[in-house]
Amino acid sequence: MNTAHHHAAAPAAEIRRHPRQPVLLSGAFLMLLSCVTLAADPPIKLNGPMVAGGRIVARQVSADGRTVVYVADQDVDDIFEMYSVPIGGGVPTRLNPPLVNGGDVRTDFRITPDGRTVVYLADQNANGVDELFSVPIGGGTAIKLNKPIPSAGGLFSFDVSPDGARVVYTGEQDRDGVGELYSVSVNGGTVTKLNRAMPSGGNILNRRFITPDSRRVVYWADQDTDNVNEIYSVPIEGGTVTKLNAPLPAGGDIGTFGFGLSPDGSRVIYTGEQTTNNVIELYSVPIAGGMPSKLNGPLVSGGAVTSFQVSPDSTRVVYRADQETNDLSELYSVPIGGGSATKLSDPGFGALFYFAISADSSTVVYQSDVDIDELFSVAIDGGLVTRLIAPPSLTDEVSFFALSNNGSRVVYTTRSLAGPGASVNGDSPPDNGLFSVPIHGGAAVPLAVGFATGSGVKEFAVSPNSHLVAYAADQDFVGVIELYQVPISGGTREKLSAPMVSGGDVSDARFSPDSSAVVYRADQDTDETLELYSVATGEPSDFLFANGFE
């Protein structure tokens, strides 16, 4: 993947950092920067008093939007523990019990979908031995979920089932040096090994999926032959393991460019060298096993399928491949069970880079390079390709894009190919324009433009309800990253963050699931001390914030 110049579609609800690159735009847009108001209610600091050197290193918002869980060395420098706090503010509760000397809570934790329980990894009882625990989100007794660990063993990663009832994890639990797959109730109890016996050198790899109905686990392993990676399906509470891919040719491997589940959980889509060694193709197979179907068309010599997405309605797979011309990536759509593949990208619009499927499964938006990077949309089963933005000048191009959850609009940033280099902070130049356009074409609306040289948009996110765009930018003070929001179809922008201490910046931000708040990290009050804040967006909320807003 070429990360130097092209960037994938963004997750809609979370601001993510991406390479910073500028764009030169008409001075006619400079007046837009004055249309900024302050948020009606100030941000609330969520963490407790921070020890010198302390910082927030991870945070998540519960699915019900009521609670924020975070990991920080809040009480003792470099001892990372886990806390929960109401999203509207309050006294944080430490969730882990006292840690062994040298112990820490890891940043990769999960909140169950019902918002009641947090599952986390920590070397809580023995320094250097990561184990798995669950604890009520409001505080209480932490329960160890795994069996005893060998002296040199430890756990690697885990997932919580969509129904919140079980935890599936990998680790060296039974034998040192052999990673295997296990399942246990989120409340503790009997631990069940899910994989079959491993050959010498075999391991479960850290990529797996739990079906939406929480009944099966699909995992990736060299379970039958060392160094031959294949995919398997097994009931989540244990039972017969089914290999999903067909027999492989000598040297063949599965999962080279990923595998995944259809959103309805009925099928597994995977890439691999199933037919010919060193030829990566795309396949679909029922979740419980059966005959795999090849999805791509015949590949030119040297061609390969390099990425794919399944439509939200689970009817089609959209994939990228140099199927017809070696080294020219194009976009195709095919029924999920197999059939004729339809080319979606217009061959006159150059090489394809990234793409996303609308939430209603009707439309594909993709980024393609003609002379410069542009955005296009097309029906998922093929048809007329629509250029989403009027051809910009040859010094401007699309940098990054995201779709609204309701599938109506595309939000994107632009950058300049001929502008200045680094930002005022000395890092990569930022994107200097943020826009929104209807997904089927129409006038693009500027959301944030007219930045000073070397400043611009660092990241953005679309709210889950598709009403707002939040973005981080040095819009008012060059070199000072602050947080803003603007209606997705354009209008008055609000500054969400409070004034920054000298040297302070917003680091990252995330919408709450109901879009009523944004939770962000910033060294807002003390330079180089990342703390956690929440601020109301003005969208409806079911809960009361500490400063009185709902």
From TrEMBL:
InterPro entries: 6-blade_b-propeller_TolB-like, WD40. This is WD40-like Beta Propeller Repeat. Pfam families: PD40 (PF07676). The lineage of its organism: Bacteria, Pseudomonadati, Pseudomonadota, Gammaproteobacteria, Lysobacterales. Belongs to the TolB family.
